[in-house]
Amino acid sequence: MLEETENEATISESEAGFRSTLAAVRRFMRPRAVAEQCELCGAPVPREHLHLVEPATRKLLCACQACTILFSNQDGRYKRVPRDTRFLENFELSDQQWESLLVPINMAFFFRSSLADKVTVLYPSPAGPVESLLPLESWAEIEAANPILRKMEADVEALLVNRGGRERKGHDAEYFLAPVDKCYELTGLIRGHWRGLSGGTEVWAEIERFFTDLKNRSVVISQKISA
Question: How far apart are the first and last CA of the chain?
Answer without folding.
Answer: 44
